[in-house]
Design goal:
Length: 341
């Protein structure tokens, strides 16, 4: 069993812990919290040994939430740590991880140079094999890679122009985000295009981004100039065969992100998570070489299976990306194709 620690049991960390815990070849040896919140209690209830920072042990003890020890003690018990601390904090932990000689996975909020490789399971799994520090790219970058990589492989891509319509904050976050406003990212291109190039270096992509007052999901509006003319049917068939991509139709009552999340609830998904990228089948439009499409990205969920695959790649226990993806997806209940709606 691969022994995995999760540093930062927040939005991403708690989901990664659950996903790891479902795998046959991995176990959670502990998670960290900085405060004795309901999430700390929930981690214990789920059977995850709870750890904290050295200066917080007293706080936990006083509040009656017992911890097993400090982060450093946890790291000594693990083969690998998945760092899910807030943006910019993971980078600060790198010297500690290096000192203890533990492999580390960082999240998309960290700069790409924190790691030896950025990671997407479908597009560049092999680059993470045996590496010590790997960054799973952000939710938006993961979403773009999932649908663009197969297009590039099958048809060739001349260039991509994409606009990210971004949720202002996550549902549980009451501190940030435009409340009654739309906030364009005025620096063009937005950081998403260059971030995709950390995974697919030779992709000619330019992105823009706009934040809107919603918490549920992002929507991407994408225009791809392909190397050759295609039909909407060919593109649809390609994505039907692509792992972690699902196709839905507005005619089934799935016109918006609100309805996609309702679908996830009805599917009994934990925390309403949609780990897959959702492409609207009836939004796929082709004119000659040019493909237009919309996709929905559940920011809290889609990077979670990528973290599981990164563990296998870094420890070298599975060298084939499709086999790792299949294992992860079977354990978590991740689907592909057009069966949902
Ligand atoms: P979060 O704020 O929900 O969770 C962060 C957790 O880390 C919290 O439990 C917090 O208590 C803990 N923490 C804070 N400071 C710490 C410290 N010094 N040491 C240890 N733990 C600490 O954040 P999140 O949304 O889960 O984001 C984590 C990372 O994942 C970021 O890099 C972010 O950019 C990336 N990411 C977030 C999303 C998203 O939509 N939420 C999507 C993809 C990637």
């Amino acid at each position: 069993m691969i022994r995995v620690a999760v540093n930062g049991y927040g939005t991403i960390g708690k989901r990664v812990a659950d996903a790891i815990n479902l795998q046959e070849d991995m176990e959670i040896v502990g998670v960290t919290k900085t405060k004795p919140t309901f999430e700390a209690l929930e981690a214990k209830r789920r059977g995850y040994p709870l750890y904290t920072l050295p200066d917080r042990v007293e706080l936990f003890n006083k509040s009656g939430v017992k911890v097993e020890g400090t982060l450093e003690e946890l790291l000594q018990k693990a083969d690998i740590v998945v760092d899910c601390t807030p943006s910019g904090i993971g980078e600060k932990y790198k010297p500690l991880y290096q000192k203890l000689g533990i492999k580390a996975i960082y999240q998309g909020g960290e700069p790409s140079n924190v790691a030896e490789a950025s990671f997407n399971a479908l597009a560049n799994y092999a680059e993470a094999i045996g590496k010590r520090h790997v960054r799973v790219v952000s939710c938006n970058t993961t979403g773009l890679c999932r649908t663009l990589y197969p297009l590039k492989q099958k048809f060739g891509i001349k260039n991509v122009k994409a606009v990210m319509i971004r949720r202002a904050s996550d549902p549980a976050n009451t501190k940030t985000g435009p409340i009654n406003a739309i906030e364009p990212t005025l620096h063009v291109p937005s950081h998403h295009g260059p971030d995709v190039q950390t995974i697919i270096p030779d992709l000619n992509i330019t992105t823009m981004a706009v934040k809107v007052p919603t918490t549920l999901m992002h929507v991407h509006s994408v225009i791809v100039n392909l190397e050759k003319p295609v039909t909407a049917e060919e593109v649809t068939n390609l994505w039907l065969e692509t792992p972690r991509v699902i196709l839905v139709e507005s005619g089934r009552g799935l016109k918006s992100t609100a309805q996609l999340i309702e679908m996830a609830r009805d599917m009994g998904r934990p925390r309403s998570d949609l780990w897959e990228i959702v492409v609207w089948r009836d939004g796929i439009h082709v004119e000659g070489n040019t493909l237009y499409y919309y996709q929905g990205v559940h920011q809290e969920a889609n990077v979670v299976p990528e973290n599981v695959d990164a563990v296998r790649a870094m420890l070298g226990v599975e060298r084939n990306n499709l086999r790792s993806i299949a294992k992860t997806d079977k354990a978590m209940g991740i689907i592909q194709g057009g069966g949902t709606g």
